[in-house]
Amino acid sequence: MSSNICTPENLVYKKTSLLTDKVMHYCPGCGHGTIHRALMEVVDEMGLQDKTIGIAPVGCSVLAYDYMNIDMQEAAHGRAPAVATAIKRLMPEKFVFTYQGDGDLAAIGTAETIHCCNRGENILMVFVNNAIYGMTGGQMAPTTLEGMKTATSPYGRDVEKVGWPLRITEMVAQLNGVWSASRHTVHTPAAVMKLKKALKKGIEDSMAGKGTCFVEVCSSCNSGWKMSPVEANKWMAEHVLEYFVPGDIKVDGKMVR
Amino acid sequence: MEDLRLMKGNEAFAEAAIRAGCDGYFGYPITPQSEVMEYLMKERPENRTGMVVLQAESEVSSINMVYAGAGCGKKVMTSTSSPGYSLMQEGISYIAAAELPCVVLNVVRGGPGLGTIQPSQSDYFQATKGGGHGDYRLIVLAPSSVQEMADFVPMGFDLAFKYRNPVLVLADGVIGQTMEKVVLQPQRPRLTEEEIRKNTPWATVGKSIDREHNIVTSLDLQAASQEKHVLHLQEKYREIEAAESRCEMIKCEDADYVLVAYGSSARICQKAVDLLRAKGVKVGLLRPITLWPFPSKEVKELATRVKGFMSVEMSLGQMVEDVKLAVEGKVKVEFFGRCGGIVPAPEEVVHAVETKLL
């Protein structure tokens, strides 16, 4: 038997050249790698590499710029929407996106998020919600579920004391500047395909000057949740998606929920 | 023909920004500098040069917009006053770390805290010794007239791009609010994307096939390479210290005593020098134009031939520390200052010289 199985007839998948060859630091089972790939595949398919400027956040995906083969800026914690605003205003012909986690977008950067959306900046915001602070070691996030145990809510999130998990996508959807808002997952192949479709429309619409296009992706964090990758995906489907319900929230400027 | 106008310092700064070929201004209203953005909004520079002007939701946001624009090789700026400048410190640290060029104006008001809206110079430490976290320096220019408020914008951009370093224009409420005549420089064109790609090949303007992807960041998780980066910054700062220190010396040639003052304090001291000379006291004035790098060489040289210095500030003694460092104990260094928004009269300076220095 030949040891070389990498023959043309065996090739069923080719990595987009918009992902670099750097080994990702993400934990096995994390959704970031899949979301990076989905986004870069769409940018590649649309032929936008030379027109794209991405903004990386602070959090697990702080090094997104090492993996995405496009020009990128790394923003201070929570400030990606402000950074994206200026880039898009200064170069309106470019495609500009932010890629942010829940702590970045929905806690420390809430003001930047809301005002960017309210101004209707013509950008795509990719919001990865894993209900926890992954990079700093699994602390409570604004999106941590009620009763969920984290390093800073070791007895479970007590909503009477620290408030309820924040559905920020539903909040920003209310703003006139937001053209579209939807929630996705990447725990099944079908979900990834749906996400890619939403990303493509978000890129098209933001480039066409329709307003802010907001795509939330619920992702599991098996390390932070202290589960195996398979268990984490199952738990996400059973618990996270019950509170953060996937689907369209606003389509083409109209609320659909 | 000379373009002579009567303008407020803040307005002159704004007009000079348009003429310097500035690409974007991002700001947030705060007294006593709000006229900068008000002037720009009224002037509609998008019609004159295509310059973007945006009111942000906070100073935190506006400085991060400056980070973003600078990362794209654009000439961008913001302006604020003391409490707002404190809010910007995080962003300025990132800008310095990522080696991005920009111009920031702080029209200083009295602190600490919400303090007062009256003029002050109590942000000297914050401006020259850091302000934000980490080992970094800003080039700090101190205008003492409306003319310099206008002139320091193009000069600030030139220095910022030459060294890939943020430039801070440290004015005060007097300079921002005073109306004086000012000669405006002719319009400079804004740079095209082609010029930006050529002049600032590191800028994030979209990856072209002939280069690797550009990354603007201040993060380096490896201690060894982060140390190397910080040492590289230090080397740049030493180069700036050697080449860019500026000051003005008035009547120092025969002086027995020298006042050291910047900004509006220097204007007050100019009058005090005349009053003292009329009384037969040979006093001169050294006016630092760059607060960082501080004109230590000039102070050091004067210390070999004068009997003493007095630092005059609208603070309770901040720049005086740099004067003492330069004098190295060779002659006495006194201090006179008012704070909380009080602007001292020349006679108060005269009295301080007579009682403390002579």
Mind explaining what this structure looks like?
The complex is a heterodimer of chains A (257) and B (358). Chain A has a single domain, classed as Rossmann fold (3-Layer(aba) Sandwich). Chain A contains 10 helices and 10 strands. Chain A has helices spanning 32-45, 64-67, 80-90, 102-108, 110-119, 159-162, 168-173, 189-207, 222-225, 229-243; strands at residues 52-56, 71-74, 95-101, 124-129, 132-133, 139-140, 178-185, 212-218, 247-251, 254-255. In chain A, helix 2 links the parallel strand 1 and strand 2. Chain A is globular. Chain A starts with 31 loop residues before the first helix and ends with a strand. Chain B has 2 domains: 3-194, Rossmann fold; 247-357, Rossmann fold. Chain B is 43% helix and 20% strand. Chain B contains 15 helices and 15 strands. Chain B has helices at 9-19, 35-43, 45-48, 59-71, 82-87, 89-97, 124-128, 146-163, 173-177, 193-199, 223-244, 263-278, 296-303, 320-327, 346-357, and strands spanning 3-8, 24-27, 52-55, 76-80, 102-108, 139-141, 166-172, 179-184, 215-216, 247-250, 257-260, 283-288, 290-292, 308-313, 332-337. Chain B has a 7-stranded mixed beta sheet with strand order 3-2-4-5-7-6-13, with helices on both faces. Chain B has a 5-stranded mixed beta sheet with strand order 10-12-11-14-15, sandwiched between helices. A two-stranded antiparallel ribbon of chain B has the order 1-8. The mean pLDDT of chain B is 97. The A-B interface holds A 20, 49-53, 55-56, 62-63, 65-66, 68-76, 79, 82-87, 89-91, 94, 111-112, 115 and B 23-24, 26, 52, 54, 56-58, 60-62, 64-69, 71-72, 74, 76, 90-91, 94, 193, 204-209, 213-219.
